[in-house]
């Protein structure tokens, strides 16, 4: 439906690199959460791909829940206002929550989420983000597992969108500025 090639300037992280990294982090998580009541919480919609692949990289059975929040709308900059579109279905009491995110950009979404989770009775709340833009941080969010630190370019693919498009690209790629400027 779209000519993908002309919309992208560079592939930043390939499907293979993602797969290897997810296996590596899954092994760490497996060891770190042995004997603990782990709950994965995916942040919709961006985290769909990383949750699907990461959860299947784990060797043990792990429950998943989802929270839908949005701060970007159709633009390329965070509005700073986070809206809950769908709340969790799970009671967090006693759970060791691992939030699964596709990207930490300004950090506003996750810092808001961590605050929101603080009062829900979880035993622990930690974060796994596949991608992080250290130079874009407006707030620094404690992140236990990070896949890749990347530059500040606007990226799409592997769950990440621009105006709801490009989520189904297999790689993470830099969106050509002509698409949004
Ligand atoms: C994107 C991304 C993260 C968040 C990161 O979500 O998936 O959740 O922004 O940005 P931040 O660190 O600057 O807050 P978005 O609001 O676009 O919703 P989506 O996941 O449905 O695309
Ligand atoms: Mn998101
Ligand atoms: Mg988005």
From TrEMBL:
GO molecular function, one term: nucleotide binding
Enzyme Commission code(s) on record: 2.4.2.8
Cofactors demanded by this protein: Mg(2+)
Subcellular location: Cytoplasm
Keywords per UniProt: Cytoplasm, Glycosyltransferase, Magnesium, Metal-binding, Nucleotide-binding, Purine salvage, Transferase
GO biological process: GMP salvage; guanine salvage; hypoxanthine metabolic process; IMP salvage; purine ribonucleoside salvage
Record-stated family: Belongs to the purine/pyrimidine phosphoribosyltransferase family.
Record-given protein name: Hypoxanthine phosphoribosyltransferase
Naturally occurring in which organism (per UniProt): Microbacterium thalassium
């Amino acid at each position: 439906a779209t000519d993908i090639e002309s919309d992208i300037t560079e592939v930043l992280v390939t499907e293979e690199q993602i797969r290897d990294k997810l296996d590596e982090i899954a092994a760490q998580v497996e060891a770190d959460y042995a004997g603990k009541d782990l709950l994965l919480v995916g942040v919709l919609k961006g985290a769909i791909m990383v949750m699907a692949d990461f959860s299947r990289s784990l060797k043990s059975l792990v429950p998943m829940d989802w929270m839908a929040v949005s701060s970007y709308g159709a633009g390329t900059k965070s509005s700073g206002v986070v809206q809950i579109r769908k709340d969790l279905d799970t009671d967090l009491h006693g759970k060791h929550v691992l939030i699964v995110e596709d990207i930490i950009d300004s950090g506003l979404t996750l810092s808001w989420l961590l605050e929101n989770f603080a009062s829900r009775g979880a035993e622990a709340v930690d974060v796994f983000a596949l991608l992080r833009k250290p130079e874009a941080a407006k707030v620094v969010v404690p992140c236990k597992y990070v896949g890749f630190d990347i530059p500040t370019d606007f990226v799409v693919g592997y769950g990440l969108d621009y105006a709801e498009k490009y989520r189904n690209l297999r790689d993470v790629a830099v969106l050509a500025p002509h698409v949004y400027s």
